Amino acid sequence: MDYNQPTKNFQKEVAEQCIRYLSIDGVIFGFHQNQLNVLLLRWKGTNEWCLPGGFIRKTESVDEAAERVMQERTGLNELFLQQFHVFGAVVRYDQDAVWRKINLNVDADSWSERTISIGYYALVEHSKVVPTPDFLTEECRWWPLDEVPGLLFDHNHIIEVATRALRRQLNDQPISHLLPESFTIPELQRLHETILGHPLDARNFYKKMMASGTLERLTERRAGTPHKAPYLYRFTRSESQA
Amino acid sequence: MDYNQPTKNFQKEVAEQCIRYLSIDGVIFGFHQNQLNVLLLRWKGTNEWCLPGGFIRKTESVDEAAERVMQERTGLNELFLQQFHVFGAVVRYDQDAVWRKINLNVDADSWSERTISIGYYALVEHSKVVPTPDFLTEECRWWPLDEVPGLLFDHNHIIEVATRALRRQLNDQPISHLLPESFTIPELQRLHETILGHPLDARNFYKKMMASGTLERLTERRAGTPHKAPYLYRFTRSESQA
């Protein structure tokens, strides 16, 4: 498929309206069937995948640019976003090799010779997302974190750094955004275990969560479970971010 | 003092060699006499203070730019640096008001209409630093964190965000960089208390530190103390960063 005329226009538009040398990359995490997933895009006419991303308009803040990109790819009006790292190496990946893989003619006049990318991760409720490709891509879908293929650019590295950041920030981040409004303690434990990558002791986990003062027990219980129906909980407050 | 000719040359140089729209700001933390200090610069011919900062050359990575700036201001060849936040609002501060305060004629052709700043903090051993002004400033010195005056740009806000990040990362960061090679447990506790802003229980702190597996007790003890000489410790490994 020839998509080079629209991409030429796109490159010109970016060069005029956006901040040269800078981009946004987004690692959108969802939690489903005890797996952490990330949202990936497949480039038109190829089998090459990458993260959602975009550029920062001169008239918008960096956070607004990130929100715009993530909202467009998820269909969500509100989502929890966290800056986690700036990828600022002079050579982040082999540009020519990437352009060849996706059959892209890059206009050297309007395109910058390097791109510094500001990484954001988003925590979203899996079931609410409507994965939506952009005009350069033809597929947008969830991939389990441990099955992510070799990606374009340095996007595997970006996912790795995002996952480490999420793991480190597990106790101060509003991971409630990854869960439906109400959930059981074992469900919350699965989420923690999935992010950390190792099992946790159920009794200690329960104690720690109760001591945190962030959970409220509801009067309803989870229906349709084979054993005694477990209580449902919800978070009492949305935690603040930096 | 007229420093406008050199600053004109500087602006031209930055416009040619550096990445437009982007800057680095550095919050350099030192720990001295149970106080957390930050390194500030005073602009030539004024009583206006700000953080050390600079621009990213097209040929260097963002990390290299940050290292260069921090090394120049501290005289240290190696220092522990951590990216903590990108300040990307469209209007971060009143530019004209800042230029007036420091009597700077800004060349609108070579200067960008907004600047996105990548914040780094550095953890340094206070006694090893040789505070060194740059060519725009005439004084560089430590300020206790709780006595920092109203600063130029949005630098009070940047310090606030850096301090929150340091506090949050207290347990995974190599805060060993803020201490001399060997130290007593009470000295380490003072550092934690200073960063957190509240006292800690000595017995629990001791237990937690011993359980962390990061400390090694030396055979020497701290000399010159009025009571029984306490043991000296050091960190056994340098912790990794993202």
From TrEMBL, chains A, B:
PROSITE patterns in the record: NUDIX (PS51462)
Domain Nudix hydrolase intervals: 19-167
Entries under CDD domains matching the protein: NUDIX_NadM_like
InterPro entries from the UniProt entry: NUDIX_hydrolase-like_dom_sf (IPR015797), NUDIX_hydrolase_dom (IPR000086), WH-like_DNA-bd_sf (IPR036388), WH_DNA-bd_sf (IPR036390), WHD_NrtR (IPR054105)
Name assigned to this protein: NUDIX domain-containing protein
Gene3D superfamilies the UniProt entry points to: Nucleoside Triphosphate Pyrophosphohydrolase, Winged helix-like DNA-binding domain superfamily/Winged helix DNA-binding domain
Pfam family, one: WHD_NrtR
PANTHER family: ADP-RIBOSE PYROPHOSPHATASE, SLR1690 PROTEIN
